[in-house]
Amino acid sequence: MNSLISPKFAGRVLTALAAISGLFFTAGCGSGSTGLATPNNDGYSASSLNGTYVLAVSGTDITTTLASNTIAFFAIAGTITTDGNGHITAGSVDINDQNLAAPGVFTAQAVSASTYTVSQDGRGKATLPTPVGTFGFDFVLTSSSHGLITRFDNNGTGSGTLDLQGSASQSSLTSLAFSLSGVDYTLSTSSLASLGAVGAVTLNSSGTVTSGTEDFNDDTSSPQTSLTGLPISAGSVSLTSSTGGTASLTTSASFGTQTFDVWVIDSTHLKLIETDNSGFALAGDAFTEQTGFTAGTLVFTLGGADASQIPVVTGGFATTDANGNLSGGTEDFDDFNTTNVLPGTVTFVATSTTSVNAPGRYQITTNGFSNGVNTNLAFAAYPSSGGILLLEDDNAGSLQGTAYAQTATSFAASAGYGLNLSGSNPNGEVDDIAQFNAGNPGTSTSTVANLTGVLDENNLGILSPDAQFSGLYVPDSPATGRGSIAVPTISTQLGALDLEYYVASDSTIVFIEADGVQVATGIIELQSSSSSAAAAQSHMSLVRSVARSSRAAVKVHAK
Q: What is the largest distance, in Å, between two alpha-carbon atoms of the chain?
């Protein structure tokens, strides 16, 4: 095991999904670079955030209401209304946080009047006062309709999204695929376990589930085969208005009936947060279900843990046909349970079969796919408008994430980007938000920085705001969309960042961090002009990392 891993850290695992961002730049910047960030002046201001937005964030809470220095999973989902002049005028959110006062689930919490700021480069700050606590957030806008967001206060950390709210009708929700991540609290008080779920449902005109399937991966022990491909025997996704509603899912698993609040982004994308206070806490996304894969190249990232519950992340490419049979795949991974924790390119192939009585579910069996400890991993896969939703369903770990059809292979030069990273290091969960400008691509011999920006980091309550950085991104040659990003020096807890990135489209890049000290997944999104309606919402599944640990053993550090 890596000598940097403390027993406290060994108990903390990621359930990262695919696609929130991060950013980092290279060693050996030459004399042509000042090493300082030049903020992008794209004309963003408080007026760029004007309307009602769906806010969804999940991560780790360290509020000390229950006991000193304890941590817990938390999720927040709801809406806020902004006036374009720096004021949050209204809002209503659900909060699932066992570290707050009993019962730990608080629905329809009114957001008191508050303020926000937006700088010229699209980075901003906001405060959300609620009856059960006040939460600070940092964010970066990629348009007036979409942004990436992190919790930024001393009582917890997490990552998520901010989307201008649209509407949906009940009749528009005919079939949905979903990806949820969180924790299982039904253990002794000394530990928690990561919990992931993926599935799909078909709905009638009233929102009742007429058929459906769900897969679970529960880290209370090795994943159980009995949690694979379970029929959803009852349930619903019912809108009570054009902007929200409720959902329920019942399977034969020990989870009973899960109930959720639903927040509408548009008719193809919903946010869900569990509200039943059953000892389980899940949050995530539902998208329009698709019937198959898009033939061509897939880009993927996954995060979670190996069979020893040690954090691991993996990312790469694969070639697929319409039935999900993969060929020519390569992956990079970082697993703290291995002696070589830096990325290594691994080749793999996979076969896919459609599950009986589960339209839209595919069982992917790989040959060679690795988490650093075990190989030939297997996954349940559900195609959706947010990507191919993936969950490991063997006994070798708990990876969760998303694959996307690749439509581009390069950064846009001379452009601004927003980024979010979510992961884990020896201090616990880490979340970064940043804005940067990208120049022309570098080569293996380049020494002059081609990326500059500003990053805010929250490492389990240790805040590192306004960290300027410069670095270098170098695409692979020949160009496949894969490349490296490195930051040799930055004022964060670890002091440097190294990424392997994978271009999914001309506006979206996903990545993993793989430097032997911190593991993370993330997303980088192209910024449009502040007034542009383009890139209105992110129709991508973003599985957030969740730090797990022994509640009794974790020491919360303070600056």
A: 65
Domain definitions of the chain by residue range: 1-559
Question: Assign residue 281 a region: left if phi > 0, alpha if psi is -120 to 50, beta otherwise?
Answer: beta
What does the alpha-carbon distance between residue 223 and residue 154 come to, in Å, rounded to a whole number?
34
Tell me the per-residue pLDDT of 50-68, one tens digit each, with 9 for 90 and over: 999 999 999 999 865 544 4
Interatomic CA distance for residues 409 and 387, integer angstroms: 17
Q: How far apart are CA 473 and CA 439, in angstroms?
A: 9
Q: CA neighbours within 13 Å on the CB side: how many for 406?
A: 23
For residues 437 and 412, give the distance between their C-alpha atoms in angstroms, rounded to a whole number: 10
Two structure tokens written together for 368 = 């060679």
Q: What is the DSSP letter of 256?
A: -
pLDDT of residue 349: 86
DSSP 227: G
When pLDDT is cut at 50, 70 and 90, the band that residue 338 belongs to is: low
| CB-based contact 12:428 (threshold 8 Å) | yes
Burial class of residue 512 (count of CB atoms within 10 Å of its CB; 0-12, 13-18, 19+):
buried
Cα separation of 359 and 403, whole Å? 19
SS3 content of the chain, % helix, strand, coil (to 5): 0, 55, 45
206: three-class secondary structure by DSSP: coil
If 0-12 CB within 10 Å is exposed, 13-18 middle and 19+ buried, where does residue 276 land? middle
CB count in 10 Å sphere of residue 225 = 10
Alpha carbon distance 225, 49 (integer Å): 46
pLDDT tens digits, 197-225: 999 999 999 999 999 999 999 877 655 45
* N residues, the chain: 559
- Name residue, tokens 């000193």: 68
CA 266 from centroid of its chain's CA atoms: 19
224 DSSP assignment:
P
Closest CA to 96 of 282, 262, 284: 282
Q: How far apart are CA 274 and CA 287, in angstroms?
A: 17
Task: Write out the two tokens for 347.
Answer: 């080749």
Rounded distance, CA 31 to CA 419, Å? 27
d(CA 424, CA 19): 16
CA distances from 361 to 169, 391, 419 (A): 25, 11, 31
Instruction: Name the region of 19 (left: φ>0; alpha: ψ -120 to 50; beta: rest).
Output: left
Omega prior to 426 cis, within 30 of 0? no
- Whole-angstrom distance, CA of residue 360 vs CA of residue 365: 16
Query: In whole angstroms, what separates CA 17 from the centre of its chain?
Result: 5
